[in-house]
Every structure is written in structure tokens, then in C-alpha cells.
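Deliverable D5.2: sample structural annotation.
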Amino acid sequence: MSAFARRCLLAPALPLAAVLCLTPSLSAQSGPKPRDEAAVLAAAKAIHAKVLSIDTHVDIAPSNFTATGPNYTQRLPRTQVDLVKMEEGGLVGAFLIVYVGQDTALNAAGYARANAQAIEKFEAIHRLTETLAPSRAEIAYTAADARRIHQSGKRVIFIGIENGFPIGSDLSNVQKFYERGGRYLSLAHNGHSQLSDSNTGERDGVWLHNGLSPLGRQVIAEMNRLGMMIDVSHPSKQSMLQTVALSTAPIIASHSGARALCGHSRNMDDEQLDALKKNGGVIQLVAFNSYVKCNPTRDAERAAAIDALRKEYGIAAGNRAEVQRAIDALPNDRRNAYLAKQEDITARRYPADPAATVKDFADHIDYVVKRIGIDHVGISSDFDGGGGVDGWRTASESLNVTAELVRRGYTEQEIAKIWGGNLLRVMERVEKVAGK
């Protein structure tokens, strides 16, 4: 019996030992480690085949969900996720995202356009699971659904909503989105919405609501009533802290990092992490290069290269949704060429600053586990929305994340929590709050 196992057996009589047993950051340091890389990979494969792994943020383009052209049921050449890549990489579940970019005009016309774009993405996801691949993928509406679908051997598809802008000023749209399958919602994206300030206010110190708007507060109550998880990844710090104070259910950060390791406004600082723990929520740490490993010079160079690429293809500057529509409108050959060049820029090496790796990503996991505990940590990629680090560039490489956790001494139980167990625990709690 290992020293770690003996310590756990003694834990009931020794409070300190109990802490050591239950704290993965310490078990990862002192627990048994495979002796060589072959043992690491063997252990990782065995664990990865068992756990219900969930990536909580994958962006989509509706053009990849049609019956007449290449779609998500096939290996798409320029997407980081599709059903083939999920199956190859042993990635069981993913939140496919209904994302609409922020419009600076907070008015009825802007809300109507955004709502139509959101409905288009909802319909695309339902088309995948109900028409294109019902034998390979199914939408999960509850945590119990996710476990049942996993047992059936299908991919588990959830729907997340990034940006509350499409709700407009009509509170009833929250329930309409919930009925379409939306199981988390962020109140803002990059830019202040009618519901909440965004993290982007840190750039110029200009705020619209100083946190949540009155309507945003109503939306939080409505989400609690319905059983929809509240996502705080893009809203401002004040919005996040106010959300914690208001919500009667745990919240999530669907794709964020630790600001202590990378000082980006999209990442959460220690005060936010501590508040998240108190709330009982979970931060889904994101494998997005610029949030994992900060370097302003590199990020500026990449942004300039992307701007030049867009000009080359006649894509006008605009918000993310406008740019995506312009990319989707390109002929297939030009769109594929554009996406290939964009991928090259995203993964481009800079001699003095190599790209972030799976190890760098796992450093964020370690940090948050040590700060607030194993029960509040999860995983996300932001694939097809700019995400990806060396070693985890597509869903087919998902095993590499598990392997890195094994190298660091995390146990099968701990890895199961990180890969999806914690997220499902929060989802179940949100469902119970709604039931009351």
C-alpha cells in the first residue's frame, strides 16, 4: 500500500491527513506517479476511456450543419471539432455555442437581428442531433441525460448561449431559449450589453451599469427559476461578484483562466475564485493561448496579422458576428483557404515566445485546484473560437490533457471531476434549485 493510500485510510482520525487526502494539489505532489511515459500513457488511456469528458465551450458555424454540404458528421478540414474528431479523441461531450456578437446599438432592431442569429444556431444544433446524426449524438437537457447518453455510446451535446444580447428587452426570451435547450447563458460578451457590463470595460475604464443592469438582475432570477446555469466568463468582475450575491444556485465560468498566471481581463482573479468557491460553482479553465500565456507584444502581432488577412479577403472590420458572417459567405475554396491561413497565424511560433502548451494549460488547473479545491475546476477549449494550445489543437487530441493530469499525479476520481463531474454536479444543483 502506498503512503498516499495509508494517509487516506487514517484520515478519519487525523484532520490534517484528511486535508491532505482530499486536496488534489497535495496528492498530485506526493501521490504515486507512473515511472515512465509508457506507464503514463497506459494509465491515461484507461482513465480517458472511462470518464465522462465535457468541453464546455465550442463555437459553431451553421454552415457546418447542413444536409447538402460537408457537415459535422464528417471530418471537416478546417474545424477543430466535429463528431469524427470527438470520437477519435474520446471527447464524450461538448457545449456547442449559440453565440451572437455584441452590437453597440442597444435597440429593438439590433435585438431582432441578434435573436434571429441565435435561433439559426439553435436550429443547426438540433438538426445535427435529430436529422444528421441521431445515432451518434444527442442533446442533453439534464445532467441525468448526459450520463444516459454517455452510457449509450453517443456523443453528448449540450447547448450554451454566449451573450445575453439576443434576449433584448423581453424577459420571456430566457424561457424560450431554455425550451430550445439552452443550459447556460452569459449576460454579456466583449462589449457592454443591456444586461451587464463586460470585462472589456477594463481597457478604458468606461462602464455602462457598474456591474449588472436592473434587467440583468431579473434575468438572473429567471435563470434560477428555470434551471439554467449562469455563465460569468465574459462579464466584468463587478457583474460576476453581484451575480454571486444574487444567485440562489451555483454559477459557472464556462471558459476562463487564472489571472494570477495570465493577467488578462477575461481571466478570474483570486477574489473571484474565492467567491466562486463560496457559491459552490466551477471555473472551466480554457485552453486559449492568449489567456493561458500572456504576452501583449505577441498578441498585438497576431491581431495585426489577422487584420491583414481579413483585408486580403475583403472582410471588413466589425464585431465577431459580422466577421463570421463574412467568412461564411466566402465560396468554399476561398473560405477554406482563409481558415487555413487564420489557423497558421493562430498557431504561429515567435522565437522569443513559443505558443502555450498543454503543460501551460495544466498549470492553470493546478493553480485553481490549490486555491479553491478540486470540486471547482473544469475544462474548456474555446475551439473554433480562437482556442487551442500545443498538444490540444483539436478534439482528437483530448487524450493529451488527461495524460498531462496523470503526469502530475491526479487520480482517476480527480480527473473525472475535472473533466466533467464538477460541471454535472453544478448542473444538478441548478436543476434542484429550479425544482424548489
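Annotation notes: The first helix runs from residue 3 to 10. DSSP finds 18 helices and nine strands in the chain.
The annotation will be released with the project's public dataset once the embargo ends.
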